[in-house]
Amino acid sequence: MQYNHIVIRFGELSLKGKNRRHFESQLRETVRKKLAPFKQAVVVKSYDRILVEINGEDHMLMIQKLQEVFGIHAISLAIHTENDLSAILEGALAAFTEARGTAKTFKVAAKRSNKSFPVGTMELNREVGGHILRATEDITVDVHKPDVEVKVEVKDNGTFISCSTFPGAGGLPIGVGGKAILMLSGGIDSPVAGYLTMKRGVRLEAVHFHSPPFTSERARQKAEDLMQELTRFGGKLKLHIVSFTKIQQIIKEKIPASYSMTIMRRMMLRITERIAEERNAMAIANGENLGQVASQTMYSMNTINEVTNLPIIRPVVTMDKLEIIDISQKIGTYDISIRPYEDCCTIFVPAAPKTKPRRDKAQLFEQKIENMEELIEEAVATIETVLFEEATNKDDEFTNLF
Ligand code: ATP
Ligand code: MG
């Protein structure tokens, strides 16, 4: 007997009723898309979990792909048998032998939700344990801290036996949490912010501001490559590229250098808000962090935030840089983010931006931009939208998340 099923368990099971049905169907849909390259595999619904029939596909590769899906708490490899004691014993031994490695101790944990099965839980533990002990050398039972736990679940649709469980990505299935627009620079923080926002079930679209010819094609390429990487978690993703050159030049001309960064960020936020309205998004996500640089002080956040009433999701706001870097390495965006090309902010930023910009001053300076509304409209009207989809080749390289 071989592993023939993957069992997917959900996280955050407190959800009830209609929400829970919605949650589960979103997750099943995502799992189906994720496993589409595995042509023989079949995703089936089961009462409180999702089952995947492996049908000869590479199960370890499938598990690694499933570890990119939010809303999954744990993933197990399982042998599915009929509700028949001798089949269960054979299956348990096969699963144990496959998973054993160098293990010296084990325990059996049986559960029986199908009460018509004649063997009780305690007896099943004993039967299965005894069978494994008789057939295996150099192994003992340890009920407290076993190296391997053999789970045996007798259900209405058969018995599932598993010894290998892998952690899922956690979070909530994408789609249950509404939509947000992610402000994606080419830096380290914003892709991590995007990942963490999606982790809470939020569907993303992203906006990137670029300023040709002051910023190169390569800077834009960076944003596009980051989006491609994020599709592993988000599926299809749209990136709206805003041509920001004209606005930046006007800011440079009319705004005192110490406030140019603040005004630039306020303009970005206004445009992002407009995009959010058009795209039916209810929030904005960004990679802002409370730190030492001028654009990242609480004063600065306060003054920039003034121009929108939309909630701003800042998943990395309180993290240390090293924590953010750690996540970016795990999700595969770090190497792209550290490519050296300048983004539009770095180029126009003055040597000494104000670290404590004020709302009243920002408003005053902005009055010098007479045609602000037109500029925003033009920027929104000339947006270029690029669609990214996850590569469907199952042999693609991927980073191991855990
Ligand atoms: P990141 O690493 O994400 O670039 P950062 O530490 O460099 O962040 P800032 O440059 O102050 O911080 O940017 C703060 C946030 O503003 C970014 O995380 C991003 O969400 C947004 N942002 C900055 N530049 C751009 C841009 N060119 N296009 C879209 N969003 C941007
Ligand atoms: Mg940056």
Task: Give a short summary of the structure.
It contains 14 helices and 14 strands.
End-to-end separation = 28 Å
Mean pLDDT: 92
Small molecules bound in the structure, each named once? adenosine-5'-triphosphate, magnesium ion
CATH topology of the largest domain: Rossmann fold
Q: Any idea what the radius of gyration is?
A: 26 Å
Largest sheet: 8 strands, mixed
Cα shape: elongated
| Order of strands across the main sheet | 2-3-1-4-8-7-5-6
Q: What count of domains describes the coordinates?
A: 2
Describe the structure.
The protein is α/β, with parallel strands linked by helices and 402 residues long. The chain has two domains: 5-167, 2-Layer Sandwich (VC0802-like), CATH 3.30.2130.30; 179-389, HUPs (Rossmann fold), CATH 3.40.50.620. 41% of the residues lie in helices and 22% in strands. The protein has helices spanning 17-34, 59-66, 85-99, 121-135, 189-199, 217-234, 245-254, 257-278, 298-305, 321-331, 334-337, 344-348, 359-366, 372-381; strands at residues 5-10, 42-46, 49-53, 72-81, 105-112, 140-141, 148-155, 158-170, 179-183, 203-210, 237-243, 283-285, 312-313, 384-388. An eight-stranded mixed sheet has the order 2-3-1-4-8-7-5-6. It has a six-stranded mixed sheet with strand order 13-12-9-10-11-14. Helix 9 (298-305) links the parallel strand 12 (283-285) and strand 13 (312-313). The structure holds adenosine-5'-triphosphate and magnesium ion. Residues 185, 187, 343, 345 line the site of magnesium ion.
